[in-house]
Amino acid sequence: MASAGKERPLPPALPLATLIGRELRAGGSERPTLRYGHAGFAKRGEDYFLVKPDCLRVPGDPSTAFSVFAVFDGHNGVSAAVYSKEHLLEHVMSALPPDIGRDDWLQALPRALVAGFVKADIDFQRKGEVSGTTATLVVVDGFTVTVASVGDSRCILDTQGGEVQLLTVDHRLEENAEERERVTASGGEVGRLNLFGGQEVGPLRCWPGGLCLSRSIGDMDVGEFIVPIPHVKQVKLSNVGGRLIIASDGIWDALPSEAAANACRGLPAELAAKLVVKQALKKSGLKDDTTCVVVDIIPSNYRLTSPQLSPKRNQIKIKSLLFGRRSHSSIGKLGAKSASFGSVEELFEEGSAMLEERYAIFTIAMIHYVTC
Fold first, then answer.
1. pTM for this entry
2. Residues 357-369: what's their mean pLDDT?
3. Dist CA 155 CA 138 (whole Å)
């Protein structure tokens, strides 16, 4: 976030419907073209990803299309990651009210994502398996991007100008003081592995269980302190589009967000994903599963560069399209809010980790679960 001395007054918040209507009246398109690619290498074979570019809010109606991309990084086995890949989206969709318009659907989506994550966690734990998984689920509807995440997989947004915005929060106890406070305030313990002789080693973990993460799906053996409630962020890009990079921690442990974005600028999405993985492996070797999904959100009135053009000309044209100024993030509460930051409108963010502040969200999720 900007320092206090550089803060500027924010413009009044605008509802999502106003933003969409304003863009349509100005001649912008709400249906950009998506180009995407994925790459990865397996060390343990516990990473999974999901690419569903052809989802429909209303069956048979192509005007209601949206796309979903996700990365799941399993631990203690693959069961939780496989289950989440196959069922998390259906749990989210079941929490959305039927027969509502697009504006209402987008406004309901953040709460539905919370409900879907909770329902997926409950259903998976009923299987009695002890594995767990991170989950970063990204929904792209026109120029509106909604991201829900637990764990330390990450989604970044690269817009015009070459600056990068983080759309997720890492739930590693070592790096997230707010999550450590939540766990200890709830009665859990946070500490390192204690060897004989009192020597402490390794990252901070939650006890019982010893998990390094404070949020995940699954992990029924680590107690109630590890929660499935995701951090949710929703932004609306300007009509110049942008690039999303979604990846597991095998990438982010090797490359900072900016380095990953810089590594693949000007390249088509499929090649970009491969290059991010290659750069991560070059930096640190194959220490963990590495999975990367790249999604380019391209205005539909932009004529994509012909494959016959030279790589250099391709890079120049795509680079001029995809990257702009950074949008500084800000914390919001329930309800769709927006603040204009250059080329990105921030519509919603719920990132608080304190249980008393999140209790209302969890209750809503459970109500959805019981009634669906």
1. 0.80
2. 48
3. 8
